[in-house]
Amino acid sequence: MSTASTSRPERVALFATCLVDQFFPEVGLAALRVLERAGVRAEFPPGQTCCGQPFFNMGHREEARAVARHTLEVFEPYDAVVLPSGSCASMVRVFAPDLFEAADPLHARMAALAAKTFELSQFLVQRLGVTAVGGTFDGTVAYHDGCHCLRELRVRDEPRRLLAGVAGCRLVEMAGSDACCGFGGTFSVKFADVSSAMVADKVAAVEATGASCVVSTDSSCLMQIAGALRRRGSAVRALHLAQVLAGER
Amino acid sequence: MSGHAPTSHRFRANAAEALANGNQVRVLRAATARSVAGRMQALSERPDWEALRVRAREVKREALSRLDHYLVEFEARVREQGGTVAWARDADEARRYIVDLARARGVRTAVKAKSMTSEEIGLNEAFEAAGVTPVETDLGEYIVQLAGETPSHIILPAIHKSRGDVSALFQRTLGTPPTEDVAELAGIARRVLRERFLRADMGVSGANFAVAETGTLVIVENEGNIRFSTGAPRVHVALVGIEKVIPRLADVATFLRLLPRSGTGQRITSYVNFLNGPRRAHEDDGPEELHVVLLDNGRSRILADPEARESLLCIRCGACLNVCPVYQRVGGHAYGWVYPGPLGAMITPQYLGLDRAPELPFASSLCGACKDACPVRIDIPRVLLHLRQTLREPEATRTRGLSAWAEKRAVALAAWTMTSPRRFAAAGRWLRRALRLLSFGGAPRVPGWSATRDFPAPARRSLREMLS
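ok -> structure tokens follow
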């Protein structure tokens, strides 16, 4: 959904996501750096925790609602909210409003938040109209389309355009770039053998490109893919889109 | 051939067995890849593909919104043409009607055109118990029947069998010489089946669509076995799920543009049958009797649930199976009942009860490939999420005893933690500390994960710690 606007949002918040905050802080720092280069000084509201998706996917609707409500209160005051995650952004944009009954005032408030919430590449390209954020990156990358990013947010070209705008970065399309990596939250553990079979094929596809790095908008996918690459002793790196755009070596 | 009790309650165990069969995984991956490629090619030829999907969904929703009206209209039209309509509340009533009819007509052999609803009600077993011999005539179904197995795909029932498997099977059961030539294998089956068609007293089919306006049964096929099964024997029984009804004949065109392309990558199937009642007095061909058995068997219950109703839009094309990364690897038998893949995960718990298929709604990463492939735009992940809310983890994935208790406590604790930044930050610090302790110098050992993947080394400082 394109909400391209010529006006810059004044107060922009970075919703780092629970995974990035606690496990991949470098991704959060990179996202802030990239936004800065695009002319946006984003804030990190310290009240933030989680979008609620893990609970939602496990079927715990009440818990998801409680967490989403907290998220609403933290981010509602901002003009735009940016997430370095397609799956978390889709939770806020697509699923969270319907956690509340249509007649509940929280539903409308959540829908309003959803309308100003974006995944990082979606924010840069659709909301700001920016496709080049400077920076350099020396190497060939393969891009993995996270499922929620692709199929819920319909964000497919934006990350690719941004990668094309990074000097020295050469993108090679991999076979089955849109095939699920097998993470799927608790699926990765509860159905570990199926999950492992899926990531094995993803790793094979990455390696077939000859790329030195696999890139995605989602740290959850990257954790799964990197986990399998490391187990194989592969030298292929796994970086978040923000890190490549920020020019991390 | 003995009855096949559902094993939908043990998906994970079934999946583990399937994954261990490397050969079968390879066969399945290749076959589904071909179907997926075929579908992409076929739909690329139609620039109006999305408009067709929207229209098809509208038609099905219209039909479901006035299902009672359209079913009654359908029945009236069928009866005007000389057919009989029976309303079967459940599998038992459907079986009894068909078996009683077979007995009354002195049926000794019944040829079966592929019908998933007949699998659903266990018709073959009921026939055999009554002394009627059922013969599957769809090549894939015939292969599966000879092997004493159940179909593993709703369109390509023997998708899990390689040519070598089929050759070996025919050698063993028919005494034919070995061959991996597809035309020869089909020829062998054709010779055997031709005889059966001519000797059969009854033909049983399903239907892709039941048109209310004209009382027409529409059935697509590639082999001609459906024309033969429904036309040659004296009696034709069409077992049709009530959700197959569509309002008008003109609607069929939309579905014919979608179904073959979605299921097999064909622009159109080799045959499209429009069946309107039994043979008329002036006609030379066709069955003397047509009996349409309208099957409920839980469908009206699903219809009543606004979140689950979506499930009934399915036109049984099989596209979701072919694109599903889980199905592509574990195959159809892992799902343990008639309907495999995303379709099965969605409807098996609803037909059999969540308690008999608790893992199925969770046997998905919610990737959404099925949703994108569905010609009637069923949001399968959304229905799975709805089912997950009714039966939550850990009950669903049967974590037992202490670990079930611990998991329930963990979910409650996690939610409480996530509603406060201080609790969240503290929990994060503790979790990372615990993971460092579990590392023993290497990567953290996380149960379930670490068997096949490295877990990332926990960050020394969180982002919020760095920014504060």
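Strands of chain A lie at 12-14, 80-83, 117-119, 136-143, 167-172, 213-216, 237-240.
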